[in-house]
Amino acid sequence: LTCAAEHLFNLKFAAKELNRNSKKCDKEEKAEKAKIKKAIQKGNMEVARIHAENAIRQKNQAINFLRMSARVDAVAARVQTAVTMGKVTKSMAGVVKSMDATLKSMNLEKISALMDKFEHQFETLDVQTQQMEDTMSNTTTLTTPQNQVDMLLQEMADEAGLDLNMELPQGQTGSVGTSVASAEQ
Q1: Residues 127-132: contacts with CB within 8 Å, 24+ apart?
Q2: Are residues 38 and 100 in the same domain?
């Protein structure tokens, strides 16, 4: 039981560390977006493209860290349930022994008090089980669109109020224009 509690602490610590790393990546993404705007303003499209690729990479990394954090949280919830179940099982064993002794004496007040305690133990277990199930159901996955770099470059140029003069490969012009239009909506 002590070992499981130690593992639980380590899992919760790991989840927090993953969340911190995700926030760092978010900050880096914002910094890269600012660099994109500066490069576009200076007319240096090659440097802007490099910063856009870095921003996309940081965004994807942030999402991956969050995804891992959610998975570690789910495992921590399961370990927490196991630790709690161990405690409840011990408590229930004590209650059952007390019930045996009380039933032999047939003291109705003691029997009622013990049954209340027994029901309370099960209510606690139900709440913790529900919490674990809620945590597991909240884990989600995200997908990344294809033309992210070009869309981000266009978005940064629009925010900076500049006209983006870059040639897109054939076949991508429509998707970038459509994506920008849907993003503006």
Answers
A1: 128/80, 128/81, 128/84, 129/81, 131/77, 132/77, 132/78, 132/80, 132/81
A2: yes
Distance from chain centroid for Cα 82: 22
For 93, the token pair is: 């064993």
| pLDDT at residue 126, rounded to an integer | 75
pTM, whole model, 2 decimals?
A: 0.54
- Does 58 map to a domain? yes
CA-based angle 180:181:185, to the nearest 5?
115
39 contact partners, CB below 8 Å, separation of at least 6 = 45, 47, 48, 51
Structure tokens at 165: 């003069």
- Residues with Cβ < 8 Å from 79, sequence gap 6 or more? 4, 7, 8, 11
Which amino acid would we find at residue 1?
Answer: L
What value does the mean pLDDT of the chain take? 77
Point out the domain boundary residue: 104, 137, 164. Answer: 104
